[in-house]
Design a protein that fits this description.
Layout lengths: L1 H10 L2 H11 L11 H26 L7 H19 L6 H18 L1 H5 L5 H28 L2 E7 L2 E12 L3 E8 L4 H21 L6 H21 L2 H24 L6 H33 L4 E8 L2 E5 L7 H4 L2 H4 L29 H12 L12 H7 L7 H4 L7 H35 L5 H13 L12 H15 L8
Parallel strand pairs: 1-4
Antiparallel strand pairs: 1-2, 2-3, 4-5
Helix pairs in contact: 2-3, 2-7, 4-5, 4-17, 5-19, 7-8, 7-9, 8-9, 8-10, 8-18, 9-11, 10-11, 10-17, 10-18, 14-17, 18-19
Length: 503
């Protein structure tokens, strides 16, 4: 019994990966229950301790898992991180050091995930055991989130002078109009869309690689999961996610052309048919995305708009009303909470639009300004960077005369690669670029040489993560879902036989 427990929890720790993935897709319970933050932290620290025990035990007993380019990448990244800390030792905060450590641990824990588990489990079992529970939890989250959108419910939560959004949020765009974005049970619609597309790739992989052995109930479960995730992505109205999906399709076309050129059959009917199928699939997804948006928009606008405002008072959340926002402690949030006046929408002037447009003259709703400010600050410490989560502190204390307002406000950078460049400098950016390229070059060459197989879906799932990271600060920062999803899949493509020239 003891040996069995040791095997399931440490040697082949499938439960660890199940719990960690579920942890990263959880709704922000701290916006519903004040004490939840403390218990979430304790649970997270427990997971980290569990992960360290797994790494230590398997390093002593299965050292072959820690050989190869994946671990070399981890080691070099650790060195780059240490150099960043030393370079900023005079003013770096504990929060920044914590972020660096969590990033290292997320890379280590999840790059070795697949090599650890394949000693006992087949690919089918690994993905089913880990992601069926994740999809089941997301099924519940998605159902509630979609209900909030269709019921036209906006929820505002004020805590510690911060304002968070849940449900549907109406965002101002050009022409004094508003467009609805689905936040649902998450705080960011881009985060919602990112998780949704990632899980769609996983679901499709499970279905395609096991379609002859899946039970009827499993197929129905996957159908429903994919559909609801796609609805969530559509309602989230994330242009970054849509652009990233389209970019993956273009990469698929490039790989098909290279593969058929290599086989000297570039202009064959079979090649043309494959290209047409890919183009049609891309168009179908784009049309479906816009169609679901319009249907959801129409249904939600038939429901009366409802605004719920909650504020932290006396160690609990209490519902307040728009008139309460006149109080000094809430007044800073008044314009945000009351940004959309429902009396101006719908039939009273057509103020609501489903098409997401920029709210000002600048493309990207201010992202270009943020990226310019990021580069300005980066040039002040280009070699080893300023360390994560330090842009506000260093801008205000060390470069107060530098015109970088978005950095002084501590704004999110909205680009993982610029974030790495700013936080870890040229050294960290080179480690990232070389490490990712070294890991992906073999799968890419295999796609060009051998063409499509079910494992190709995982490769394209990785490419989506890398593409969407141009619009989101989602990888190489802390231990969020997209970070561990990317690291886990990188471990899969370097460990499975398909990408080593096998079948």
């Amino acid at each position: 019994m003891r040996n069995k427990l040791l095997e399931n929890l440490i040697k082949y720790p499938i439960l660890f990966y199940i719990f960690y993935f579920i942890y990263t897709i959880r709704p922000p319970f701290k916006l519903m229950i004040l004490s939840a933050d403390k218990y979430e932290s304790l649970f997270h620290y427990g997971l980290i301790l569990w992960g360290l025990i797994i790494v230590g035990y398997n390093f002593l007993t299965r050292r072959e898992i820690f050989l190869g380019k994946n671990i070399n990448f981890v080691i070099v990244w650790i060195i780059a991180s240490i150099l960043t800390v030393i370079s900023n030792i005079s003013y770096i905060t504990m929060s920044s050091i914590k972020s660096i450590v969590l990033t290292i641990l997320s890379i280590l824990f999840f790059l070795i995930g697949y090599p650890l588990l394949r000693g006992k489990y087949s690919d089918t079992k690994i993905f089913k055991y880990i992601f069926y529970p994740v999809l089941a939890v997301k099924l519940l989250i998605n159902s509630i989130s979609i209900y909030l959108y269709l019921a036209n419910i906006s929820i505002f939560v004020i805590r510690n002078n911060l304002l968070d959004f849940l449900g549907v949020r109406y965002v101002g765009i050009t022409g004094n109009r508003y467009t609805p974005l689905l936040y649902g049970l998450y705080k960011d619609p881009n985060f919602t869309a990112m998780i949704g597309v990632s899980l769609i790739f996983i679901s499709i992989y499970i279905y395609v690689s096991n379609k002859n052995t899946l039970t009827y109930k499993e197929k129905v479960f996957i159908y429903i999961s994919v559909f609801l995730e796609f609805v969530m992505v559509s309602f989230s109205n994330s242009r970054g996610a849509l652009y990233s999906i389209i970019s993956v399709f273009f990469i698929i076309l490039i790989i098909i052309i290279l593969n058929r050129y290599r086989l000297k059959s570039l202009f064959s009917k079979f090649t043309m048919r494959k290209i047409i199928v890919v183009i049609c699939a891309m168009m179908l997804i784009s049309v479906s995305y816009m169609g679901i948006q319009k249907i959801g928009f129409s249904l939600s606008q038939n429901s009366q708009f409802k605004r719920y405002i909650y504020a932290e008072q006396n160690n609990r959340f209490t519902r307040i009303f728009p008139s309460d926002l006149e109080q000094e402690r809430f007044s800073k949030h008044k314009d945000w909470v009351l940004e959309y006046d429902e009396t101006e929408g719908g039939e009273n002037g057509g103020k609501i639009a489903i098409t997401k447009e920029d709210s000002g003259e600048e493309i990207g709703n201010g992202r270009l300004t943020i990226w310019k400010d990021t580069l300005k600050l980066f040039l002040k410490k280009p070699i080893f960077g300023i360390a994560p989560e330090m842009q506000k502190k260093i801008s205000l204390e060390k470069y107060e005369n530098l015109d970088i307002p978005s950095m002084k406000e501590g704004r999110s950078i909205h680009n993982s690669y610029l974030a790495v460049l700013l936080y870890y400098g040229i050294v960290g950016a080179l480690v990232l670029a070389v490490g990712i390229i070294r890991i992906l070059i073999l799968p890419f060459m295999d796609e060009v040489k051998n063409g499509y197989s079910p494992k190709s879906i995982l490769f394209y799932g990785i490419l989506f993560s890398l593409a969407v990271s141009f619009f989101l600060e989602s990888i190489f920062v802390n231990i969020d879902f997209e970070q561990i999803y990317l690291m886990f899949l990188l471990g899969v493509v370097t460990g499975c036989s398909k990408f080593k020239g096998g079948s």
